[in-house]
Design a protein that fits this description.
2 domains; binds adenosine-5'-[phenylalaninyl-phosphate]; 19% strand; BirA Bifunctional Protein, domain 2; 7-stranded mixed β-sheet; alpha+beta
């Protein structure tokens, strides 16, 4: 029998065997079919070996025919393999019928609060207990609220302290660089006495171990008659103790912000190295938490308050820095990488 005749017979046999495998509808039947035709001792493999015995003249035509058969069988088996997956699924569904009335599985993964949310909730609780109300404000704002009304006119060098993302808009708009814009919105809408906090997102073109381009601040301010720096210091001390406990060291340093006079910054002992000095605190032993001071008369003027009658203090600090220190995180950026494994471990009541 010639090789061409043999090929034809094998093709017919394959078609019969394939129909059988389809009616079996089992992945094992497909595998058995593959082995009996394409396996080491399979019919197609034997056919290929027979090619060696064909004369030189007849070999090209015979080779072509055998190859066509092989391709046909390989293609059919590939098709059957993908069908086999749906047979398998159908078998599972038949074996284990779905009962939609059964109770759901016990939930294995439960959500948890983000470390910054934990800190935010705790801060709001502390400040509410001191009589502060919570307000909100725009993250995209006019230059006026973020800078000019805060005694930072155009071309003032202090603008360079906060690398700003500007927004393409007909009027000068930007992503707020700090929550201090809320001071202006609130003072324009309300009259003293004021005792307000405003937590929210802010944005700066910044990125290293203690700086991220989006971060969270909480602004606070008090405006009334006879408000002094002692009120400011007492408030900051109270909240730092409430958040960090009374054993962690904290300090005040004189500093400059155009919207306060005098101004200060406050630091806490680095939570990673406990004040010894490390990469996170740049070997200083301290992490800067925020700025504060007595509201500048020019700010009162911008919102139409009488600065000879009213005085006030304001502060603004980084909630992410607090979270970083509270949970001893070496790198602030970890908070925003969206790693559930990492974010799921922070205890809500750790203080
Ligand atoms: C301000 O933003 C002032 N508005 C604070 C203020 C309010 C002063 C009211 C006086 C009166 P400063 O740029 O220093 O100040 O930022 C305040 C805090 O935000 C910093 O101490 C730090 O804790 C945090 N912070 C600043 N930049 C970043 C950043 N890129 N990533 C994370 N936290 C930051």
């Amino acid at each position: 029998m010639s090789l061409l005749e043999k090929s034809e017979i094998i093709k017919k046999e394959f078609e019969t065997d394939r129909a059988k495998a389809v009616s079996d509808a089992k992945p094992e039947a497909v595998e058995a079919l593959r082995v009996s035709y394409l396996g080491r001792k399979g019919k197609v493999t034997a056919l290929m070996e027979d090619l060696r015995n064909v004369s030189k003249e007849d070999r090209p035509a015979a080779g072509k025919a055998v190859n066509l058969i092989r391709q046909f069988i390989e293609g059919s088996i590939d098709e059957l393999k993908s069908q086999a997956r749906s047979w398998e699924l159908a078998a599972i569904i038949n074996r284990e019928p779905l009962d939609v009335t059964l109770p759901v599985d016990e939930q294995k993964q439960v959500g948890s609060l983000h470390p910054v949310s934990i800190v935010r909730q705790q801060l709001i609780k502390v400040f509410r207990s001191l009589g502060f109300t919570v307000v909100d404000g725009p993250e995209i704002d006019f230059d006026f609220f973020n800078f000019s009304a805060l005694n930072i006119p155009d071309h003032h060098p202090a603008r360079d302290m906060q690398d700003t993302f500007y927004v393409d808009a007909p009027e000068k708009m930007l992503l707020r660089t700090h929550t201090s814009n809320i001071q202006i919105h609130t003072m324009l809408n309300e009259r003293p006495p004021l005792r307000v906090i405003a937590p929210g997102r802010v944005f700066r073109c910044d990125n290293d171990m203690t700086h991220t381009p989006m971060f969270h601040q909480i602004e606070g301010f008090v405006v009334d008659e006879n408000i002094t720096f002692a009120h400011l210091k007492g408030t900051i001390d109270t909240f730092l103790k409430a958040i960090f406990g009374s054993t962690l060291k904290t300090r005040f340093r004189p500093s400059f912000f155009p919207f306060v006079e005098p101004g200060a910054e406050f630091d806490v002992e680095c939570g990673v190295c406990k004040g010894k000095g490390c990469r996170t605190c740049k070997d200083t032993g301290w992490i800067e938490i925020g700025g504060c001071g007595m509201i500048h008369p020019n700010v009162f003027e911008a919102v139409g308050y009488d600065s000879s009658r009213y005085s006030g203090f304001a502060f603004g600090f980084g909630m992410d820095r607090i979270a970083m220190n509270r949970f001893a995180l070496p790198d602030l950026r970890q908070l925003f990488e969206g790693d559930y494994e990492f974010l799921g471990h922070f205890p809500v009541h750790s203080n």
